């Protein structure tokens, strides 16, 4: 039977039986399309661990769970912009300030880039500037050495325009950095400069800067001064050094110091990197290397790509990934200039041991022989057979708060039964996938852990695909339920809008819940006798009849009761060319064709005529 | 809300029906391989193809059944429509 015919037959059989059993056979839901393993609550490629989303940055539980790989010195001039980091996320901190995520559980994803800031090529840290900084309004000295960003400083200059100044005055500028681009944190800015006390208009001055982060990391102040005023202490920074790795496009204001505070004026500060003219840029080769860990051990996968970008450009990072069934245990990105030399490390990261050990802990889920990826699944133990809670556990909305959850539910990864806390990824079925593992404490997050108020958006599953989060119940937006704007003066709106709102709330189906219900019902039926019979029928292969002339052969061995041995058979109606019955068979075909055709014509005309109460051919009515 | 409630109720009903079935049922082996028996019968029918033109026979039977189904459907529609007030003529 051809594939098409077979499929048609299977479809027909399934359809017929589906009708018989109340339409239980509904098409595969989108959850099934999403999850390669039917019925899984969450699917992940074989190489991805059950530690799903351990590094969702915005989830409180994950804040400390993100693996931090120590950065390589001198990398503050770089920032990775891997915005789409899938799987168990590892956050790599470079230079203590630059946060980048480039390593997933499967490798370095495509699209990863490293942005180079202006300045020279990466080099080792210079010594932190030392000295005493004293706020003009605070007596407590701050020693910047301990919290300095360990980085290489290059020269910037500040341009102050749009304001006037008074000769001989000391101008104090306060501003707030919009952001530190690499770190994504806000930094407060406070600087004091002096300027050329002659002329007017635009003032250019080189700013010797120190940048340090306060212990909390939420704010940092920039102090700079070359003022000789007695109430300012000098910052002992080399006059040719300023910070790099921070884009200083600022908007601040300046005001005069205390003795002339009544004439404060607004200034706009424009900070522009002052690149060294001899900056060679980034011309050479970028190399990505990922070490893959599988049942057979570790091996490296490497990819290189030529690059040629100017300072401030973006370096493309070649994507590398481990084969299916393996976990990326570490990854590095390095660079070699065209002029040769050693590979300069740019980024590196390692997978936590708890993730790496999954290969040994769950051997059936890893390795090249694993055909079906393992997935994290939640089951309900109501009956004799566990029933899946559906995609994202949507069918068990209150399972995590059930005091008897440990006896009513079961968490599995592939065929392995896990501690129920591993399924804490589904503790907010209505909201999305949550972190389920704390890499700091190396323990699963309890199912009773609080749900983050703000979930990452879009939520990603371990494979990096967006997770379909069930929509909230429709029609619950209060703004849709009452007239607004000019509608408040329309009395009908006060009746019509609430009715429509209530109707939406009552009758608009939740698609995701329907899909979940359908999936659950289908799975439940699959294990029943009707479902098994349907599956058996679907497995039949029927060969359609064809024309032949060999007749019908009967096994007549039983007539001989074994006498003489061998097999005996008898053939009747054999009418191939040359056989005695062939002429008769030919006439038979003619008469049979006539009989079928005439019979069909009579029947068909009667059926058609019967529609209008006419008898058709051969009948008078 | 109401629709979801109905769906949940329908799901629970089906799950309850499912729970009534024995969980240790296995499909008999003869049924799993019943297609072999059917194919044996079909094979014998192939052998008499010199006597009966199977393509013509199948075409005629299929067409007859198809037309019967269409005619029956139209009749059913007519019967239902006849009960519509001011339209079907029965009321």
User: Radius of gyration of chain A, rounded?
Assistant: 38 Å
What is the count of DSSP helices of chain A, taking H or I runs of 4+ residues? 12
Low-confidence stretches of chain A: 1-101, 117-279, 454-478
How far the N terminus sits from the C terminus of chain B, by CA atoms, comes to 38 Å
Biggest interface, chains and residue tallies = A-B, 65 and 52 residues
Helix-and-strand structural type of chain A: alpha+beta
C-alpha Rg of chain B (nearest Å) = 24 Å
Strand proportion of chain B, as a percent range, falls in under 5%
User: Count of helices of chain B?
Assistant: 4
What is the general shape of chain B?
flat
Can you give the helix content of chain B as a percent range? over 70%
Strand content of chain A is 15-25%
Largest sheet of chain A: 5 strands, antiparallel
Mean pLDDT over the residues of chain A:
55
Question: Would you write up a description of this structure?
Answer:
The complex is a heterodimer of chains A (621) and B (91). By secondary structure, chain A is of the alpha+beta class. Chain A is 19% helix and 25% strand. Chain A has twelve helices and 31 strands. In chain A, strands 1, 24, 25, 26 and 27 form a five-stranded antiparallel sheet that branches. A four-stranded antiparallel sheet of chain A has the order 19-18-22-23. Chain A is extended. Chain B is mostly helical and 91 residues long. Chain B is built from four helices and no strands. The mean pLDDT of chain B is 83. Classes of the chains: A alpha+beta (621), B mainly alpha (91). The interface between A and B is large, with 65 and 52 residues.
Summarize the SSE layout with pairings.
The complex is a heterodimer of chains A (621) and B (91).
Chain A: H1 3-20, H2 30-34, E1 42-43, H3 60-63, E2 67-69, E3 78-80, E4 90-94, E5 98-103, E6 107-108, E7 113-116, E8 133-134, E9 141-142, E10 156-161, E11 171-180, E12 185-193, E13 203-206, E14 210-213, E15 220-223, E16 251-256, E17 268-273, E18 282-294, E19 297-309, E20 314-316, E21 320-321, E22 327-337, E23 344-350, H4 353-356, H5 358-361, E24 375-380, E25 387-388, H6 405-408, E26 409-413, E27 416-418, E28 437-438, E29 443-444, H7 478-481, H8 493-507, H9 511-526, H10 529-538, E30 552-555, H11 557-560, E31 569-572, H12 582-611
Parallel strand pairs in A: 2-4
Antiparallel strand pairs in A: 1-24, 3-7, 4-5, 6-21, 7-20, 8-9, 10-13, 10-17, 11-12, 11-16, 14-15, 18-19, 18-22, 22-23, 24-25, 24-26, 26-27, 28-29, 30-31
Helix pairs in contact in A: 1-10
Chain B: H1 2-20, H2 29-32, H3 34-47, H4 54-81
């Amino acid at each position: 039977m051809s594939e098409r015919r077979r499929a048609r037959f299977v479809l027909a059989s399934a359809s017929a039986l589906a009708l018989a059993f109340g339409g239980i056979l509904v098409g595969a839901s989108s959850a099934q399309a999403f999850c390669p393993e039917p019925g899984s609550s969450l699917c992940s490629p074989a190489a991805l661990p059950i530690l799903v989303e351990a590094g969702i940055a915005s989830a409180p539980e994950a804040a400390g769970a993100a693996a931090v790989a120590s950065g390589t010195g001198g990398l503050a001039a770089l920032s990775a912009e891997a915005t789409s980091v899938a799987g168990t996320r590892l956050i790599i901190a470079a230079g203590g300030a630059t946060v980048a995520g480039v390593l997933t559980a499967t490798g370095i994803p495509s699209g990863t880039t490293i942005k180079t800031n202006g300045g020279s090529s990466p080099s080792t840290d210079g010594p932190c500037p030392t000295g005493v900084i004293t706020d003009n309004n605070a007596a407590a000295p701050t020693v910047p050495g301990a919290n300095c960003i360990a980085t290489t400083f290059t020269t910037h200059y500040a341009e102050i325009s749009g304001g006037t100044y008074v000769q001989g005055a000391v101008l104090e500028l306060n501003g707030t950095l919009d952001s530190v681009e690499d770190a994504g944190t806000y930094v407060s800015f406070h600087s004091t400069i002096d300027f050329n006390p002659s002329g007017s208009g635009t003032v250019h001055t080189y700013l010797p800067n120190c940048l340090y982060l306060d212990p909390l990391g939420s704010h940092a102040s920039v102090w700079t001064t070359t003022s000789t005023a007695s109430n300012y202490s000098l910052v002992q920074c080399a006059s040719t050094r300023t910070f790099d790795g921070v884009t200083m496009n600022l908007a601040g204001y300046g005001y005069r110091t205390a003795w002339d505070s009544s004439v404060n004026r607004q200034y706009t500060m424009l900070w522009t990197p002052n690149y060294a003219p001899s900056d060679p840029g980034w011309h050479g080769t970028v190399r990505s290397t990922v070490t893959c860990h599988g049942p057979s051990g570790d091996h490296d996968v490497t990819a290189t790509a030529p690059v040629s970008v100017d300072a401030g450009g973006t370096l493309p990072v070649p994507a590398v990934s481990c084969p299916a069934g393996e976990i990326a245990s570490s990854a590095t990105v390095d660079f070699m200039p065209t002029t040769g030399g050693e590979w300069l490390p740019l980024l590196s990261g390692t997978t936590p041991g708890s993730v790496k050990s999954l290969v040994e802990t769950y051997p059936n889920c890893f390795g090249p022989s694993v055909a079906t990826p393992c997935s994290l699944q939640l089951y309900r133990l109501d009956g004799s057979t566990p029933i899946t809670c559906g995609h994202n556990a949507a069918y068990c909305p209150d399972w995590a708060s059930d005091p008897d959850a440990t006896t009513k539910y079961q968490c599995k990864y592939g065929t392995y039964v896990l501690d129920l806390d591993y399924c804490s990824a589904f503790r907010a079925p209505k909201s999305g996938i949550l972190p389920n593992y704390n890499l700091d404490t190396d323990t699963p997050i309890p199912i009773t852990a609080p749900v983050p108020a703000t979930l990452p958006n879009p939520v990603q599953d371990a494979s990096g695909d967006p997770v379909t989060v069930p929509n909230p119940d429709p029609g619950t937006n209060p703004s849709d339920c009452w007239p607004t704007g000019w509608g408040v003066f329309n009395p009908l709106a006060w009746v019509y809008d609430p009715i429509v709102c209530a109707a939406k709330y009552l009758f608009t189906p939740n698609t995701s819940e329907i899909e979940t219900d359908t999936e659950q019902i289908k799975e439940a039926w699959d294990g029943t006798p009707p479902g098994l019979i349907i599956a058996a029928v679907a497995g039949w292969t029927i060969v359609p009849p064809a024309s032949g002339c060999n007749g019908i052969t009967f096994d007549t061995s039983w007539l001989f009761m074994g006498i003489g041995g061998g097999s005996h058979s008898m053939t009747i109606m054999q009418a191939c060319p040359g056989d005695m019955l062939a002429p008769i068979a030919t006439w038979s075909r003619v008469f049979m064709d006539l009989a079928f055709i005439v019979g069909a014509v009579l029947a068909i005309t009667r059926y058609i005529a019967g529609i209008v109460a006419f008898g058709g051919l051969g009948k008078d009515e | 809300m109401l629709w979801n409630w109905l769906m949940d109720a329908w799901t629970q009903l089906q799950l309850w029906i499912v729970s009534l079935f024995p969980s240790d049922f296995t499909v008999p082996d003869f049924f799993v391989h019943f297609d072999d028996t059917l194919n044996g019968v079909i094979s014998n029918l192939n052998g008499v193809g010199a006597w009966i033109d199977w393509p013509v026979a199948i075409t005629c039977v299929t067409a007859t059944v198809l037309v019967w189904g269409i005619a029956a459907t139209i009749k059913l529609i007519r019967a239902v429509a006849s009960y519509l007030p001011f339209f079907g003529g029965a009321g």
